[in-house]
Amino acid sequence: MSGGGIGAAVGRALTVWRRSVSARVVVSTVLLSAVVVGAVSWLLVVQVRDGLLDDRVRSATAEAETETVQAVDRLVGGSDFDVASQLELVAAPLSQRGAVRGYEVLVARSDADPASDLTSSGSISSPGLDLTSVPRSLREHFTGSTQLAWAWTSLRTTDDDGTTSEVPGIVVGTQVQLPADGRPYTLYLLFPMEQEQETLALVTRSVLVADALLVVLIGGVTYLVARQVVTPIRLARKVAERLAAGRLQERLRVSGQDDLARLASSFNQMASNLQRQIQQLEELSRVQRRFVADVSHELRTPLTTVRMAGDMLHDARTDFDAPTARAAELLQVELDRFERLLGELLEISRYDAGAVALEVEDVDLRDVVERVVRQTATVAATSGVRVDVREPGRPCVCAADGRRIERIVRNLVTNAIDHAESRDVVLTVDADEHSAAIAVRDYGVGLAPGESAMVFNRFWRADPARARTSGGTGLGLSIALEDAHLHGGWLQAWGTPGGGAQFRLTLPRHAGDQLRHSPIPLLPADAEPVR
Description:
alpha+beta, Heat Shock Protein 90, rod-shaped, EC 2.7.13.3, HATPase_dom
C-alpha cells in the first residue's frame, strides 16, 4: 500500500474514532480486556512453568540420590577391583538405565581443576555426551563440598550418525569415593527437559488461542451491548437534526419502560413544547410583519397628503412670521425623516417576507465610495469632518447589486460622521483574488465591549440621549446587514470606548462564492492595544 493510501486509511480510522461512540467503546474494551487477559495468561503460564520445573528438579534429585546409594553398594561389593574397573562398575549400570529412562551419565574426579577438560581427567560418560554440558560452577562446587547439588544447563549430545542436538536440561551431581584409590569422584546425571518444554509450549499455545477467542467474544458482546445503547442515541440525533431543519412534527418512537424509553418520552415532550412555542412565535412574527407592512402602506396616503400641505407651507414660509416660518421648516425636516422611516420599514418588511431579489452586475467599489463621498460632503462639512479615501489604485470589482452596496456604504459613512466628533473619517478600499472589501474608520466615541454585535439590531442606539446629526431612523445598519447577507458577504464592526470604531463590508468577487477571508483586517492598524 502506498503512503497516500495508508494516510487515507489512517484518516478514515480517526474519523470513525471521533464520530462513533460504539467504536470507541468496543476498541477500548477490547484493548483493556487484552491487557487483563494477557496478564492473567502470563501468570498462568509462569505458574505452569514453575510447577513443571520444580517437579522435574524433585524427580531428578530423588533419582540421583537413589542411583548414588546403589553405586556405593556396588563399590562396596567390588572393592577388590582397580580404579578403572570400579569406575566401569559405577558408570555402566547407570548408562544402561539412563538409556532407558532418558538421562546421561558422567563420572569424573572431584579434585580435578574445574578449568581443565574433563576428557583429560580420567572421566567416563555415556556415549555421545558432550562433556561441556556440565557447568563449570557445578564442578567448582564439588571441589570443596560433598553435598548434592544441581544446576540448569544446555544438554549437548551427538547421535551415531553424527547429528548434534542441544536441549535444555538439568544436571544433578553427587559425590562418591572409590575404594581403589580413596579419591572422591562426582557422579553427574544429566536429565533432558524436552518433554517439559513441549508441555509448556502446548500450554502456551492453548492459552494464546483461548485468549484470542476470549478477546473476540468480549469484543462481540461489547459491540452488542454498545449497539443497544448507541442505537437509540443515534435515532435521537437524527430526529434532533430533522427538528433543527424545521421538521417540527418528528418524534422518537417509545418502546418499553427503561431509562432510554423515558428519555425518548422526555425528548418528545420537549419537541412538542418547542413546536408549540415556535408556532406561537412564528404566528406572532407573522402578525408583526403584517402589521408593519400594513401600517407602512396605510401611512403612505396620509403622508402624501401631509407632504403636500407641508410643501405648501414650506414654500410660503417667507410670508409667515419668524416662529411660524421656523415651524414650517421643522415640519419639512421631520416629514423627510418620516418618509425615510416608512421606506425603510417597507424594506425591512420585504426582507422579512423573503421578497427581495438582487440585480447583480460588475461593480467597482472605488466608484461606489467616490459617489458616497460626494453625496455626504455637505453633512461632513457641516459636522467639521474630513473624509479621507484610501484605495489601491487598481480596480476592486465584484459581482453585486450596485444600488444596495451604495446604500450600505452611505449608511456606514453617515453613521461614522455622526459619531466622529469632528475628527477624520477614513474609507479604505481593497480587493484580492477572492474578495473585495470597504472599511469605514472613525475616531469618535467608539463602541463599548459587546456593542459590536448589538449595533446591527433594529432601532438600537449606543447612547439613547445622543442626537442624530443626519436624522437617522435606527434601521440603517439593520438594512445594511441584510443587504450584506443577501450578497453572501460580511458586515462586521469593531470599536473601543474613546478610540473610535471601524465597520468592514466584505463581498465575494464572484456571485455564489463562499467567503473565507477579507483583504482588510477588522482591527485597524492604528488601534490602541487593549490593556
